[in-house]
Amino acid sequence: MKNLIKGMFVLFFIIGMAISGYGQCVPDTANCKDINEPGQICPDSLPVAVLNIYYEQVFTVIPPYEFDLGTGVIPIYKIIIDSVANLPPGLSYEANATELFPDSAYCVLISGTPTETGTFFLKIYVTPFVEFMGSIVQGAQTLDDTSLFIIVQSTTGLPVMSTDQVMLLPVKPNPFTISSRIGLTSDKFGVGELYVFYITGQMAHHEEIWIQPGKNYFDFRGEKLRKGIYLYRVSFMGKSYTSRVVKM
Question: Which CATH class is domain 167-247?
Answer without folding.
Answer: mainly beta
